[in-house]
Amino acid sequence: MAVPTLSRVLLVEDDPDIRALTGFALRSVGGFELEECASGADACVRAKLFRPEIVLLDLMMPGMDGWATLRAMRAMPETARTPVVFITAKVQTHEVESYRRSGVSDVIVKPFEPAALPDLLRSIWRRIHGEADREPA
Amino acid sequence: MTAYPEALARAYAVALRDYARGGGEAALLRAYQAGRDTLTEGLGVLELAAVHQRGLVEMLGDLAPGDHARAARSAAEFFAEALAPFEMSQRDLRGRLEEHERLEHLKNEFLSIVSHELRTPITSIHGSLNLAVEGLFGELPGEARHFLEIAYQNSQRVVRLLDELLDVERIERLEFGRDTQPIELAPLLESAVEANQAYAERFDARIALAGEAPSVKVLGDPDRLLQVLANLLCNAARFSPRDGTVVLRAEQQPGLVRVSVSDRGPGISEEFRPRVFERFAQGDPPPSGHREGSGLGLSICKAIVERLGGRIGFETEVGRGTTFHFELPEWSEEAAKGGGAETRWPSRP
Predict the structure, then answer these.
(1) A92:B175 CB<8 A
(2) Domains of chain A: which residue ranges?
(3) The complex's ipTM?
(4) B85-90: long-range contacts, CB 8 A cutoff, minimum separation 24
């Protein structure tokens, strides 16, 4: 089955500078339809209307952190199966696999190259759909 | 044991006998003092116990059997008193060890927090520069582009430094070498050449794999092995003369594989050689004059290789070049089934 085109991305990042430049890259370089949120709580509200195809979620946020946001999204029918990619400064190579086992599609480590982010996100998207195709019916 | 502690131990045995024969507090005090002296003179607690045993046996021989029980009780009391300085010294040592561990933990936590906290502002700086040098804000005037590229490359350097600081912290927490698996070496070497070729080109050098890498497996963490290779290859490229070739070579030897990285650079000065693998140690700058590292890279390589059961070293000749090499035990299914034979390294001259 052909991989559907990725277009709607929800970006959740509390740091305004990182949010601005990531948003710029996703819109200008990637050409995605983008919704930006500064908190996990806001992301859960907006995700219901925006219906993202993928969520780019900062792990370390005050209040509702990435894990709490992920749990909340999994509990909502609108986002229960939406792929989530963590963005974090606090990850080590050997931890990435355990993140994936916890229901996270991938992890992008800060600092990253925003210019290359759209391609990276598309390759994650293709991988997710490749894996989904191989899943037994 | 030197003659002096032996004399002190004898004094202790005499004090024990006096105490058991009713010498009272004065004998106990002498025993206590003898215990302290033997301690400061470096007599171990087990040696002291042996002296006590000797003294006790000798003393019992002098006494009527009816007095043995009383003498043994006195000896036990005496022994407890005489060992008090050891007990205190051990408690003190334990306290100091605990304090040392607490400070180490605080240091690592501090390092971890600083490294992670710095990543947030660095992400903004590095990301903005990345967008600018990639031309996303339009074509930049020549000089602006040149200086932005300098800033971008230096932001990459800061990121590497942060990574290395975190690696040091992970080494201290013994987090390396947990995710080992059998790895085919040849594709790993090819990936390392490909991944670091662009970096070498910045120094007008190239990386070449000598011949065909042997078909051999090692037990390791592929990311960590690539990190070791990247470090050695990038160092070699930085120190290579213009148009120089950095040669990556792998050789199979009985029970192990030896990987080496050679350059034709200026070599390592004799004074610096003993410190090459020390943390933060830096020798003479490369021909370009630009230091790029933190002086942590080679100490991290050593920690990784040793954690994987291997060893690392180098040969160098001033004016001719340097070869860094590491050796890892070869992995085979048979050895793994048998629990893995321990590699016996030949002794170095």
Answers:
(1) yes
(2) 8-132
(3) 0.84
(4) B85/B32, B85/B35, B85/B36, B85/B39, B86/B35, B86/B39, B86/B45, B86/B48, B89/B39
